[in-house]
Amino acid sequence: MAASTQPDVMDKLVSLCKRRGFIFQSSEIYGGTGSVWDYGPLGVELKKNLKDAWWRSMVRLRDDVVGLDAAILMHPRVWEASGHVAGFTDPLVDCKTCKGRFRADKLEDARCLQKPSKRPGEAEQCQLTEPRLFNLMFKTFMGPVEESAATVYLRPETAQGIFVNFLNVQQSTRQKVPFGIAQIGKAFRNEITPGNFIFRTREFEQMEMQFFVEPGSDMEWFEYWKSERMKWHQSLGLASDRLHYHQHEGSELAHYARAAFDIEFDFGGSLGFQEIEGIHNRGDFDLGRHQEYSSKKLEYFDQPNNKRYLPYVIETSVGADRSTLAALVNAYREESVPGEEEGRTVLALHPTLAPVKAAVFALTKKDGMPEMARKIAADLRQHFPVDYDETGSIGKRYRRQDEVGTPFCVTVDGESVNDGTVTVRDRDTLKQDRVAATALRGYLEERLGE
Ligand code: GAP
Protein backbone atom coordinates (compact mmCIF):
# COMPACT_ATOMS: atom_id res chain seq x y z
CA MET A 1 0.00 0.00 0.00
CA ALA A 2 1.78 3.15 -1.12
CA ALA A 3 -0.90 5.82 -1.55
CA SER A 4 -0.09 9.00 0.30
CA THR A 5 -1.45 12.51 0.64
CA GLN A 6 1.82 13.68 2.16
CA PRO A 7 4.51 15.39 0.08
CA ASP A 8 7.70 13.53 -0.78
CA VAL A 9 10.43 15.03 1.40
CA MET A 10 12.94 12.19 1.16
CA ASP A 11 15.46 13.85 -1.19
CA LYS A 12 15.45 17.06 0.85
CA LEU A 13 15.86 15.08 4.05
CA VAL A 14 18.79 13.02 2.72
CA SER A 15 20.55 16.26 1.81
CA LEU A 16 19.76 17.94 5.16
CA CYS A 17 20.93 14.85 7.06
CA LYS A 18 24.28 14.91 5.27
CA ARG A 19 24.77 18.69 5.42
CA ARG A 20 24.01 18.93 9.14
CA GLY A 21 25.68 15.74 10.31
CA PHE A 22 22.74 13.45 11.00
CA ILE A 23 23.43 10.59 8.58
CA PHE A 24 26.23 9.83 6.06
CA GLN A 25 26.62 7.04 3.56
CA SER A 26 28.98 4.37 4.91
CA SER A 27 32.53 4.43 3.44
CA GLU A 28 31.55 7.33 1.21
CA ILE A 29 35.16 8.15 0.19
CA TYR A 30 35.33 4.68 -1.43
CA GLY A 31 32.10 5.22 -3.31
CA GLY A 32 29.83 4.05 -0.49
CA THR A 33 28.64 0.66 0.74
CA GLY A 34 25.26 -0.46 -0.61
CA SER A 35 22.49 0.52 1.77
CA VAL A 36 24.62 0.93 4.87
CA TRP A 37 24.60 4.27 6.70
CA ASP A 38 26.63 5.99 9.42
CA TYR A 39 25.10 8.28 12.03
CA GLY A 40 26.91 11.60 12.52
CA PRO A 41 27.03 13.74 15.69
CA LEU A 42 23.37 14.83 15.58
CA GLY A 43 22.06 11.54 14.18
CA VAL A 44 23.61 9.46 16.92
CA GLU A 45 21.94 11.68 19.55
CA LEU A 46 18.57 11.48 17.78
CA LYS A 47 18.64 7.69 17.47
CA LYS A 48 19.92 7.31 21.04
CA ASN A 49 17.06 9.49 22.32
CA LEU A 50 14.59 7.27 20.46
CA LYS A 51 16.12 4.07 21.85
CA ASP A 52 16.21 5.56 25.37
CA ALA A 53 12.53 6.53 25.08
CA TRP A 54 11.68 2.95 24.05
CA TRP A 55 13.77 1.43 26.87
CA ARG A 56 12.20 3.75 29.42
CA SER A 57 8.66 2.97 28.34
CA MET A 58 9.18 -0.80 27.85
CA VAL A 59 11.58 -1.64 30.71
CA ARG A 60 12.19 1.14 33.24
CA LEU A 61 8.56 2.14 33.80
CA ARG A 62 7.29 -1.45 34.06
CA ASP A 63 7.81 -4.17 36.64
CA ASP A 64 6.76 -6.95 34.24
CA VAL A 65 9.42 -6.43 31.52
CA VAL A 66 13.18 -6.87 32.04
CA GLY A 67 16.12 -6.12 29.76
CA LEU A 68 18.67 -8.28 27.94
CA ASP A 69 21.66 -7.73 25.67
CA ALA A 70 22.34 -11.00 23.82
CA ALA A 71 25.26 -11.54 21.42
CA ILE A 72 24.92 -11.08 17.66
CA LEU A 73 26.66 -14.39 16.90
CA MET A 74 24.70 -17.41 18.09
CA HIS A 75 24.94 -21.18 17.77
CA PRO A 76 24.09 -22.07 14.13
CA ARG A 77 21.41 -24.53 15.29
CA VAL A 78 19.43 -21.53 16.58
CA TRP A 79 18.72 -20.52 12.98
CA GLU A 80 17.73 -24.05 11.98
CA ALA A 81 15.30 -24.17 14.91
CA SER A 82 13.90 -20.72 14.20
CA GLY A 83 13.18 -21.63 10.58
CA HIS A 84 15.52 -18.99 9.14
CA VAL A 85 17.94 -21.43 7.42
CA ALA A 86 15.10 -23.10 5.53
CA GLY A 87 12.64 -20.26 5.16
CA PHE A 88 14.14 -16.78 5.50
CA THR A 89 14.30 -16.35 1.75
CA ASP A 90 13.09 -14.01 -0.95
CA PRO A 91 12.48 -15.19 -4.55
CA LEU A 92 15.05 -13.53 -6.80
CA VAL A 93 15.19 -13.01 -10.57
CA ASP A 94 18.11 -11.69 -12.62
CA CYS A 95 17.82 -9.89 -15.93
CA LYS A 96 20.48 -11.18 -18.34
CA THR A 97 20.22 -7.99 -20.40
CA CYS A 98 20.47 -5.15 -17.85
CA LYS A 99 22.12 -7.28 -15.10
CA GLY A 100 19.47 -6.03 -12.67
CA ARG A 101 18.47 -8.23 -9.74
CA PHE A 102 14.88 -8.05 -8.52
CA ARG A 103 12.51 -9.62 -6.01
CA ALA A 104 10.23 -11.84 -8.09
CA ASP A 105 7.28 -11.08 -5.76
CA LYS A 106 7.79 -7.29 -6.00
CA LEU A 107 8.29 -6.83 -9.75
CA GLU A 108 5.40 -4.38 -9.93
CA ASP A 109 7.33 -1.97 -7.62
CA ALA A 110 10.63 -2.34 -9.55
CA ARG A 111 11.94 -0.52 -12.64
CA CYS A 112 13.88 -1.91 -15.60
CA LEU A 113 17.45 -0.55 -15.37
CA GLN A 114 17.54 0.26 -19.12
CA LYS A 115 13.94 1.43 -19.52
CA PRO A 116 12.91 2.95 -16.17
CA SER A 117 9.39 3.64 -17.49
CA LYS A 118 8.84 -0.15 -17.63
CA ARG A 119 8.75 -2.92 -15.07
CA PRO A 120 11.40 -5.68 -15.26
CA GLY A 121 10.15 -8.15 -17.90
CA GLU A 122 7.94 -5.59 -19.63
CA ALA A 123 10.45 -4.23 -22.17
CA GLU A 124 11.19 -6.27 -25.29
CA GLN A 125 14.86 -6.80 -24.50
CA CYS A 126 14.30 -8.03 -20.89
CA GLN A 127 15.51 -11.58 -20.26
CA LEU A 128 14.42 -12.60 -16.76
CA THR A 129 15.69 -15.85 -15.26
CA GLU A 130 13.39 -18.27 -13.42
CA PRO A 131 12.92 -17.19 -9.76
CA ARG A 132 15.29 -18.83 -7.28
CA LEU A 133 15.22 -18.61 -3.51
CA PHE A 134 17.85 -16.41 -1.91
CA ASN A 135 18.54 -16.63 1.86
CA LEU A 136 18.79 -13.19 3.46
CA MET A 137 21.14 -14.20 6.29
CA PHE A 138 24.78 -13.03 6.15
CA LYS A 139 27.17 -15.95 6.67
CA THR A 140 30.61 -15.83 8.22
CA PHE A 141 33.03 -18.30 9.85
CA MET A 142 33.82 -18.82 13.52
CA GLY A 143 37.52 -19.55 14.10
CA PRO A 144 40.39 -19.79 11.62
CA VAL A 145 39.01 -22.41 9.21
CA GLU A 146 36.59 -21.37 6.49
CA GLU A 147 34.58 -24.58 6.22
CA SER A 148 30.88 -25.30 6.38
CA ALA A 149 31.13 -26.78 9.90
CA ALA A 150 32.38 -23.35 11.09
CA THR A 151 29.58 -21.35 9.45
CA VAL A 152 27.79 -18.89 11.70
CA TYR A 153 25.26 -16.19 10.83
CA LEU A 154 24.89 -12.53 11.67
CA ARG A 155 21.49 -12.51 13.38
CA PRO A 156 18.64 -11.37 11.12
CA GLU A 157 16.48 -10.50 14.17
CA THR A 158 17.30 -9.94 17.85
CA ALA A 159 14.33 -12.03 19.02
CA GLN A 160 16.11 -15.41 19.04
CA GLY A 161 18.57 -14.17 21.70
CA ILE A 162 15.53 -13.64 23.92
CA PHE A 163 13.95 -17.05 23.24
CA VAL A 164 17.11 -19.04 24.01
CA ASN A 165 17.58 -17.07 27.27
CA PHE A 166 13.94 -17.35 28.35
CA LEU A 167 14.55 -19.71 31.29
CA ASN A 168 17.85 -18.03 32.35
CA VAL A 169 16.05 -14.70 32.66
CA GLN A 170 12.89 -16.10 34.22
CA GLN A 171 14.74 -18.07 36.88
CA SER A 172 17.32 -15.37 37.70
CA THR A 173 14.70 -12.62 38.06
CA ARG A 174 11.94 -14.85 39.53
CA GLN A 175 9.49 -13.25 37.09
CA LYS A 176 6.12 -14.94 36.82
CA VAL A 177 4.21 -15.39 33.57
CA PRO A 178 2.97 -13.01 32.17
CA PHE A 179 6.23 -11.10 31.80
CA GLY A 180 8.42 -9.77 29.02
CA ILE A 181 12.07 -9.55 27.95
CA ALA A 182 13.23 -6.55 25.92
CA GLN A 183 16.39 -5.81 24.00
CA ILE A 184 17.86 -3.35 21.53
CA GLY A 185 20.52 -4.50 19.09
CA LYS A 186 21.87 -4.78 15.58
CA ALA A 187 20.36 -7.13 13.02
CA PHE A 188 21.58 -7.90 9.50
CA ARG A 189 19.72 -8.87 6.34
CA ASN A 190 21.20 -9.23 2.89
CA GLU A 191 18.19 -7.47 1.36
CA ILE A 192 17.84 -7.86 -2.43
CA THR A 193 16.21 -4.49 -2.89
CA PRO A 194 17.22 -2.22 -0.04
CA GLY A 195 16.75 1.51 -0.34
CA ASN A 196 14.81 4.63 0.50
CA PHE A 197 17.63 5.97 2.66
CA ILE A 198 17.55 4.30 6.12
CA PHE A 199 14.13 2.70 5.50
CA ARG A 200 15.47 -0.67 4.32
CA THR A 201 19.15 -1.30 4.97
CA ARG A 202 21.41 -4.32 5.31
CA GLU A 203 22.57 -3.46 8.83
CA PHE A 204 20.01 -1.98 11.20
CA GLU A 205 18.89 -1.87 14.81
CA GLN A 206 15.80 -3.49 16.26
CA MET A 207 13.99 -2.81 19.53
CA GLU A 208 12.18 -6.05 20.32
CA MET A 209 10.15 -7.31 23.27
CA GLN A 210 8.81 -10.82 23.75
CA PHE A 211 5.96 -11.05 26.25
CA PHE A 212 5.44 -14.58 27.62
CA VAL A 213 1.84 -15.43 28.47
CA GLU A 214 -0.30 -18.41 29.42
CA PRO A 215 -1.89 -20.03 26.33
CA GLY A 216 -5.50 -18.87 26.12
CA SER A 217 -4.69 -15.36 27.36
CA ASP A 218 -2.62 -14.61 24.24
CA MET A 219 -5.18 -12.71 22.16
CA GLU A 220 -6.03 -10.44 25.09
CA TRP A 221 -2.35 -9.55 25.50
CA PHE A 222 -1.98 -9.19 21.74
CA GLU A 223 -4.70 -6.51 21.74
CA TYR A 224 -3.12 -4.84 24.77
CA TRP A 225 0.33 -4.53 23.13
CA LYS A 226 -1.15 -3.49 19.79
CA SER A 227 -2.74 -0.52 21.50
CA GLU A 228 0.24 0.30 23.79
CA ARG A 229 2.66 0.41 20.88
CA MET A 230 0.45 2.72 18.81
CA LYS A 231 0.24 5.08 21.83
CA TRP A 232 4.05 5.08 22.09
CA HIS A 233 4.52 6.26 18.53
CA GLN A 234 1.92 8.98 19.07
CA SER A 235 3.55 10.03 22.35
CA LEU A 236 6.74 10.88 20.42
CA GLY A 237 4.85 13.18 18.10
CA LEU A 238 4.08 11.02 15.05
CA ALA A 239 0.88 12.52 13.63
CA SER A 240 -2.15 10.28 14.28
CA ASP A 241 -3.41 10.70 10.71
CA ARG A 242 -0.08 9.37 9.41
CA LEU A 243 -0.37 6.15 11.46
CA HIS A 244 -2.57 3.12 10.99
CA TYR A 245 -2.68 -0.66 11.53
CA HIS A 246 -2.28 -3.16 8.75
CA GLN A 247 -3.46 -6.71 9.45
CA HIS A 248 -1.52 -9.65 8.01
CA GLU A 249 -3.76 -12.24 6.43
CA GLY A 250 -3.25 -15.51 4.57
CA SER A 251 0.16 -15.84 2.92
CA GLU A 252 1.30 -12.54 4.46
CA LEU A 253 1.43 -14.21 7.90
CA ALA A 254 5.02 -15.21 8.83
CA HIS A 255 5.69 -18.91 9.41
CA TYR A 256 5.64 -18.40 13.20
CA ALA A 257 2.65 -16.07 13.51
CA ARG A 258 -0.87 -16.90 14.76
CA ALA A 259 -1.88 -13.25 14.30
CA ALA A 260 0.00 -10.18 13.16
CA PHE A 261 -0.55 -6.46 12.75
CA ASP A 262 1.89 -3.86 11.48
CA ILE A 263 1.88 -0.27 12.61
CA GLU A 264 2.35 1.69 9.39
CA PHE A 265 3.50 5.29 9.02
CA ASP A 266 2.84 7.47 5.98
CA PHE A 267 6.33 8.37 4.71
CA GLY A 268 4.83 10.51 1.94
CA GLY A 269 5.36 10.51 -1.81
CA SER A 270 5.54 7.19 -3.60
CA LEU A 271 6.62 5.32 -0.45
CA GLY A 272 3.36 6.14 1.33
CA PHE A 273 2.22 3.98 4.25
CA GLN A 274 4.89 1.46 5.26
CA GLU A 275 5.55 -0.79 8.25
CA ILE A 276 7.53 0.68 11.14
CA GLU A 277 6.62 -1.96 13.74
CA GLY A 278 5.27 -5.50 13.78
CA ILE A 279 3.13 -6.94 16.59
CA HIS A 280 2.95 -10.72 16.37
CA ASN A 281 1.32 -13.52 18.28
CA ARG A 282 4.04 -16.16 17.85
CA GLY A 283 2.24 -18.80 19.93
CA ASP A 284 4.69 -21.41 21.28
CA PHE A 285 6.42 -21.80 17.90
CA ASP A 286 9.85 -20.51 18.96
CA LEU A 287 10.08 -22.03 22.44
CA GLY A 288 8.70 -25.30 21.03
CA ARG A 289 11.30 -25.42 18.26
CA HIS A 290 14.20 -24.53 20.57
CA GLN A 291 13.03 -27.19 23.01
CA GLU A 292 12.99 -29.72 20.16
CA TYR A 293 16.34 -28.72 18.59
CA SER A 294 18.29 -28.27 21.86
CA SER A 295 16.62 -31.21 23.68
CA LYS A 296 16.36 -28.90 26.74
CA LYS A 297 13.02 -28.44 28.47
CA LEU A 298 11.92 -24.81 28.23
CA GLU A 299 8.61 -25.18 30.08
CA TYR A 300 7.51 -22.70 32.69
CA PHE A 301 6.45 -24.08 36.06
CA ASP A 302 3.35 -22.34 37.36
CA GLN A 303 3.80 -23.10 41.07
CA PRO A 304 0.47 -21.88 42.52
CA ASN A 305 -1.46 -24.00 40.02
CA ASN A 306 1.12 -26.82 39.96
CA LYS A 307 1.26 -27.01 36.17
CA ARG A 308 3.93 -26.81 33.46
CA TYR A 309 3.49 -25.30 30.04
CA LEU A 310 5.28 -23.63 27.15
CA PRO A 311 4.20 -19.99 27.23
CA TYR A 312 2.86 -18.26 24.14
CA VAL A 313 4.70 -15.17 22.99
CA ILE A 314 3.42 -11.75 21.98
CA GLU A 315 6.19 -9.90 20.18
CA THR A 316 6.58 -6.19 19.53
CA SER A 317 9.34 -5.47 17.02
CA VAL A 318 10.27 -1.98 15.86
CA GLY A 319 13.24 -0.77 13.81
CA ALA A 320 15.26 2.01 15.48
CA ASP A 321 16.46 3.31 12.12
CA ARG A 322 13.05 3.13 10.48
CA SER A 323 11.49 4.91 13.47
CA THR A 324 14.22 7.55 13.26
CA LEU A 325 13.32 8.07 9.60
CA ALA A 326 9.62 8.33 10.50
CA ALA A 327 10.45 10.95 13.15
CA LEU A 328 12.49 12.96 10.63
CA VAL A 329 9.87 12.75 7.86
CA ASN A 330 7.10 13.63 10.33
CA ALA A 331 9.07 16.64 11.62
CA TYR A 332 10.26 18.15 8.33
CA ARG A 333 8.61 21.42 7.39
CA GLU A 334 9.27 24.37 5.09
CA GLU A 335 7.53 27.50 6.33
CA SER A 336 7.30 31.20 5.65
CA VAL A 337 8.13 33.40 8.63
CA PRO A 338 5.84 36.40 9.36
CA GLY A 339 7.65 39.66 8.67
CA GLU A 340 10.61 37.97 7.00
CA GLU A 341 11.31 37.43 3.34
CA GLU A 342 13.28 34.23 3.75
CA GLY A 343 11.35 31.18 4.85
CA ARG A 344 12.72 28.54 7.15
CA THR A 345 13.24 24.79 7.17
CA VAL A 346 12.32 23.35 10.53
CA LEU A 347 12.51 19.92 12.08
CA ALA A 348 9.63 20.03 14.54
CA LEU A 349 10.98 17.04 16.48
CA HIS A 350 9.40 16.07 19.79
CA PRO A 351 11.60 17.59 22.56
CA THR A 352 12.43 14.08 23.86
CA LEU A 353 13.97 13.25 20.48
CA ALA A 354 15.65 16.57 19.65
CA PRO A 355 19.45 16.05 19.58
CA VAL A 356 20.10 19.52 21.05
CA LYS A 357 17.57 20.83 23.56
CA ALA A 358 18.64 24.48 23.66
CA ALA A 359 21.07 26.81 21.88
CA VAL A 360 22.59 29.79 23.66
CA PHE A 361 23.62 32.91 21.71
CA ALA A 362 25.47 36.10 22.59
CA LEU A 363 23.81 38.87 20.59
CA THR A 364 27.21 40.50 19.92
CA LYS A 365 30.76 39.55 20.79
CA LYS A 366 31.27 42.44 23.22
CA ASP A 367 30.15 44.07 26.50
CA GLY A 368 30.35 40.86 28.53
CA MET A 369 27.68 39.08 26.46
CA PRO A 370 29.82 36.12 25.28
CA GLU A 371 31.06 35.52 28.85
CA MET A 372 27.54 35.48 30.27
CA ALA A 373 26.19 33.33 27.41
CA ARG A 374 29.05 30.82 27.71
CA LYS A 375 28.45 30.49 31.45
CA ILE A 376 24.71 29.89 30.89
CA ALA A 377 25.51 27.24 28.22
CA ALA A 378 28.02 25.50 30.51
CA ASP A 379 25.53 25.43 33.42
CA LEU A 380 22.67 24.08 31.26
CA ARG A 381 24.97 21.48 29.64
CA GLN A 382 25.14 19.70 33.01
CA HIS A 383 21.49 18.80 32.53
CA PHE A 384 20.86 18.37 28.77
CA PRO A 385 22.64 18.83 25.40
CA VAL A 386 23.23 22.50 24.64
CA ASP A 387 24.83 24.30 21.69
CA TYR A 388 26.68 27.64 21.93
CA ASP A 389 26.83 29.94 18.90
CA GLU A 390 28.09 33.52 18.54
CA THR A 391 28.64 33.74 14.79
CA GLY A 392 26.42 35.29 12.09
CA SER A 393 23.22 37.30 12.40
CA ILE A 394 20.73 36.22 15.04
CA GLY A 395 18.28 35.33 12.23
CA LYS A 396 20.83 32.96 10.68
CA ARG A 397 21.54 31.38 14.02
CA TYR A 398 17.82 30.75 14.55
CA ARG A 399 17.60 29.14 11.09
CA ARG A 400 20.56 26.86 11.82
CA GLN A 401 18.90 25.62 15.01
CA ASP A 402 15.42 25.30 13.45
CA GLU A 403 16.85 23.07 10.75
CA VAL A 404 18.20 20.56 13.28
CA GLY A 405 15.15 20.70 15.53
CA THR A 406 16.45 22.58 18.60
CA PRO A 407 13.32 23.42 20.61
CA PHE A 408 14.64 26.59 22.34
CA CYS A 409 17.09 29.39 21.56
CA VAL A 410 18.34 31.58 24.41
CA THR A 411 19.77 35.02 23.56
CA VAL A 412 21.95 37.10 25.87
CA ASP A 413 21.76 40.80 24.89
CA GLY A 414 22.89 44.14 26.32
CA GLU A 415 20.01 44.19 28.80
CA SER A 416 20.90 40.69 30.07
CA VAL A 417 24.24 41.86 31.37
CA ASN A 418 22.50 44.60 33.40
CA ASP A 419 19.37 42.87 34.69
CA GLY A 420 20.21 39.16 34.48
CA THR A 421 17.33 38.26 32.10
CA VAL A 422 17.54 36.52 28.71
CA THR A 423 15.22 36.01 25.73
CA VAL A 424 13.93 32.48 25.12
CA ARG A 425 12.48 31.77 21.67
CA ASP A 426 10.23 28.78 21.06
CA ARG A 427 11.02 26.88 17.82
CA ASP A 428 7.39 26.06 17.00
CA THR A 429 5.40 29.13 18.10
CA LEU A 430 8.27 31.62 17.49
CA LYS A 431 7.05 33.26 20.71
CA GLN A 432 9.73 34.99 22.78
CA ASP A 433 9.73 35.18 26.60
CA ARG A 434 11.96 37.21 28.86
CA VAL A 435 13.23 34.91 31.62
CA ALA A 436 15.60 35.44 34.56
CA ALA A 437 18.84 33.55 33.89
CA THR A 438 18.55 31.99 37.36
CA ALA A 439 15.11 30.54 36.43
CA LEU A 440 16.18 29.38 32.96
CA ARG A 441 16.89 25.74 33.75
CA GLY A 442 13.48 25.23 35.39
CA TYR A 443 11.74 27.11 32.57
CA LEU A 444 13.35 24.89 29.90
CA GLU A 445 13.04 21.60 31.80
CA GLU A 446 9.33 22.15 32.32
CA ARG A 447 8.80 22.65 28.58
CA LEU A 448 11.17 19.90 27.49
CA GLY A 449 9.47 17.39 29.80
CA GLU A 450 12.88 16.55 31.33
N1 GAP B 1 11.35 -10.46 15.12
C1 GAP B 1 10.37 -10.09 14.16
C2 GAP B 1 10.91 -9.30 13.06
O1 GAP B 1 12.12 -9.16 12.89
P1 GAP B 1 10.19 -7.90 10.97
O2 GAP B 1 8.82 -7.40 10.59
O3 GAP B 1 10.95 -8.67 9.98
O4 GAP B 1 9.94 -8.75 12.29
C3 GAP B 1 10.61 -5.84 12.50
O5 GAP B 1 11.05 -6.67 11.45
C4 GAP B 1 10.98 -4.38 12.26
O6 GAP B 1 12.39 -4.28 11.98
C5 GAP B 1 10.31 -3.77 11.03
O7 GAP B 1 9.03 -3.27 11.36
C6 GAP B 1 11.27 -2.64 10.68
O8 GAP B 1 11.01 -1.51 11.47
C7 GAP B 1 12.61 -3.22 11.07
N2 GAP B 1 13.31 -3.75 9.87
C8 GAP B 1 13.18 -4.99 9.31
N3 GAP B 1 13.98 -5.12 8.24
C9 GAP B 1 14.66 -3.93 8.11
C10 GAP B 1 15.63 -3.44 7.20
N4 GAP B 1 16.14 -4.18 6.21
N5 GAP B 1 16.09 -2.16 7.37
C11 GAP B 1 15.62 -1.39 8.39
N6 GAP B 1 14.71 -1.81 9.29
C12 GAP B 1 14.22 -3.06 9.15
Compile the SSE list and pairings.
Blueprint: H1 10-19, E1 23-25, E2 37-39, H2 41-60, E3 65-67, H3 76-81, H4 84-87, E4 89-94, E5 101-103, E6 132-135, E7 139-141, E8 151-153, H5 159-164, H6 166-173, E9 179-188, E10 203-213, H7 218-235, E11 243-247, E12 259-266, E13 273-283, H8 285-294, E14 300-302, E15 307-309, E16 312-319, H9 320-331, E17 332-335, E18 344-347, E19 358-362, H10 369-381, E20 386-389, H11 394-404, E21 408-412, H12 414-419, E22 421-426, E23 432-436, H13 440-448
Parallel strand pairs: 3-9, 19-20, 19-21
Antiparallel strand pairs: 1-2, 4-5, 4-6, 7-8, 9-10, 10-16, 11-12, 12-13, 13-16, 14-15, 17-18, 21-22, 22-23
Helix pairs in contact: 2-9
Glycyl-adenosine-5'-phosphate binds next to strand 10, strand 13, strand 16 and helix 9.
Describe the structure.
Helix 2 (41-60) packs across helix 9. 30% of the residues lie in helices and 27% in strands. A hairpin with a 4-residue loop joins strand 14 and strand 15. It contains 13 helices and 23 strands. The protein binds glycyl-adenosine-5'-phosphate.
